[in-house]
Amino acid sequence: MRIDGRKNDEIRNVKFTRNYVKHAMGSVLVEFGDTKVLVCASVDENKPKWMAKDEKSGWLTAEYSLLPASTNVRCQRERTKISGRTQEIQRLIGRSLRACLDLERLGERTITIDADVIQADGGTRVASICGGFIALNDLINTLMIQGVLTENPIIEPIAAISAGIYDGNIIVDLCYEEDSHAQADSNIVLTKSGKIIEFQTTAEGEPFTKEQMDEIFKLAKDAIAGIINLY
């Protein structure tokens, strides 16, 4: 039995509250247990300046932040310099969501996903990716209703979950206490059909075996299927 009484293959209570803010074309409050992330999707009717002028596709980018009171010790706002951790998470969110998009169908426009962590208890990046897909999907639906898009550029849904080895046991959806003492830590992003977008697994202590890695993947795949069913 785990710290909060869950089974090894059991995720926390997951809740998505859509249309959480008034002005965003796509928004959702994501709750993974005590982790809460507000995710919004916005669109700019221009492609990035770095893209070639004759390129007829769009782009998706992401920004991520921990709000000051989201952790047990106040964290500083990253006003002028973004930390390496924040950059890593932003890139993970961005490339995960781009993997589920046909950027040519998106057209010459840029979508920005903003993920702001209100309360952190482990798994903020995977919660941001799940919320990012929901906000993206709602934004795309709005653009199609408005006639801005004639084809849906979303290829298939995606979701993400954390997993790892804690106290010798392979577990899924780690809370902060489990994550901070894990022997191995994973973040897995999959499509609805089970294709791998990201499979980050790192030993924090002793090396782990391929059999353990396979079990981590299996628990994550089952958990992700359950999350996608909640969309």
Give an overview of the whole structure.
29% of the residues lie in helices and 30% in strands. With 231 residues, it is an alpha+beta fold. Strand 1 (14-18) and strand 2 (26-32) form a beta hairpin. The longest helix is centred in the middle third of the chain and has 22 residues, at 124-145. The mean pLDDT is 95.
Output the keywords:
five-stranded mixed beta sheet, 5 helices, alpha+beta, four-stranded antiparallel beta sheet, 231 residues
Radius of gyration: 18 Å
Give the overall shape: globular
Helix content: 25-40%
Stretches with pLDDT under 50, minimum 5 residues: none
**Largest sheet at a glance?**
5 strands, mixed
Oligomer: single chain
Strand content: 25-35%
State the secondary-structure class. Answer: alpha+beta
Question: What is the residue-averaged pLDDT?
Answer: 95
Order of helices and strands: EEEEHHEHEEHEEH
Q: Give me the count of strands.
A: 9
Topology at a glance:
Elements: E1 14-18, E2 26-32, E3 35-44, E4 59-66, H1 84-98, H2 103-106, E5 110-119, H3 124-145, E6 158-166, E7 169-172, H4 176-180, E8 184-191, E9 196-203, H5 210-229
Helix pairs in contact: 1-3
Quick overview of this protein structure:
29% of the residues lie in helices and 30% in strands. It has helices spanning 84-98, 103-106, 124-145, 176-180, 210-229; strands spanning 14-18, 26-32, 35-44, 59-66, 110-119, 158-166, 169-172, 184-191, 196-203.
